[in-house]
Design brief:
By secondary structure, the protein is of the alpha/beta class. The mean pLDDT is about 95. It is built from twelve helices and twelve strands. Helix 4 links the parallel strand 4 and strand 5. The longest helix has 21 residues. The strands form two sheets. A seven-stranded parallel beta sheet has the order 8-7-6-9-10-11-12, with helices on both faces.
Length: about 325
């Protein structure tokens, strides 16, 4: 029997009972375990499905010799574990690549529409007795800049190209020839992407090469009427530069799904972005993946990853091979 802790458990009692028949003993736990609680819960576990707020530090992992696998509930495993730390303590990291990409892509479209059509301002004004019709532009035939033409970025391109006849520019380290042909997309430099796009949307992984990739230089190239969407990691964008261009109205608005600190720490300097007017900076709580269909797929893949590993000694979803 493989004992597995599931923080922020999304399995019901029936599903847990079914998995026990497959030799998986799931131990449900809350999202907000303290460090001592986490260590205590994991002492006899071979694996954890991480869907809580925990972060696996060297201090924690050094006390958990029996723990072999950290299965992140989603894609962005860096939220809970550093690869180098995992490797040092011989822990295997797995995630659920591609499984919720469509949900994030559709959420991206929702943020685009929210910003451009000024839905938050219209809602707030009318509720306060202000009957003011703000203008917006049609998305049809507009230029969309996609930074990161991976799985999510490609689905975004597919939606916008087919639904709005968008002109697709993209920035990526790979040529992406199939995408260029399918969507009449053009691979461009980062500067050109920001300069020519009506909407720039970020779908890059966070690493040493992408941290603060988008700074004042890139943001200052944007059209005053343009919008920035970030459903990747907040740290890809320099927070000081973003505040500066938004505060000076150099771009029309920005939307993030996720923030520099999660939950938001109001004492941090980055929180001043939230002092900007409604609709200038829109923030959602890292929830773009959270469609009912997507959550079901993530849950299923987490379990399948573990079963595959226990049966074969490996998995297609191992991050730190």
């Amino acid at each position: 029997m493989y004992k597995i802790l599931f923080t922020g458990c999304t399995l019901n009692e029936h599903e847990i009972a079914e998995l026990k028949e497959k030799e998986l003993q799931i131990i449900p736990a809350k999202k907000d375990l303290t460090e001592n609680e986490l260590i205590s819960c994991l002492e006899d576990c071979i694996a954890v499905i991480s869907n809580g707020n925990e972060y696996y530090t060297p201090e924690i992992l050094s006390k958990l010799p029996n723990l072999k696998i950290i299965q992140f509930y989603g894609i962005g495993y860096s939220k809970c574990i550093d690869v180098d730390v995992a490797n040092k303590y011989n822990k295997i990291i797995m995630n659920t690549p591609k499984v919720n990409s469509y949900s994030v892509a559709e959420f991206t479209l929702g943020l685009i529409l929210t910003l451009n059509q000024k839905l938050l301002q219209h809602n707030e004004n009318t509720r306060n007795g202000i009957w003011e019709e703000k203008t917006f532009f049609d998305l049809k035939n507009k230029t969309i800049g996609i930074a990161g033409m991976g799985h999510i970025g490609t689905i975004v391109a597919d939606i916008l190209y087919k639904a709005f006849n968008s002109k697709i520019l993209f920035y990526d380290k790979l040529a992406k020839e199939d995408e260029q042909n399918k969507y009449h997309a053009e691979k461009v430099s980062l500067d050109r992407l920001f300069k020519e796009s009506d909407i720039v949307t970020l779908h890059l992984p966070l690493n040493d090469n992408t941290r603060n990739l988008v700074g004042y230089n890139e943001l200052s190239l944007m059209k005053p009427s343009s919008y920035l969407i970030n459903t990747a990691r907040a740290e890809i964008v320099d927070s000081e530069a973003l505040y500066d261009v938004l505060n000076k109205n150099l771009i029309s608005g920005c939307a993030f799904d996720g923030f520099y600190e999660e939950p938001v720490n109001l004492s941090k300097n980055t929180a001043k972005l939230l002092s900007l007017p409604t609709g200038k900076f829109v923030l959602t709580p890292h929830t773009g993946y959270n469609a009912v269909e997507g959550d079901s797929r993530v849950k299923k893949m987490c379990i399948n990853n573990l079963l595959q590993f226990f049966n074969t000694g490996t998995s297609n979803s191992i991050v730190n091979k």
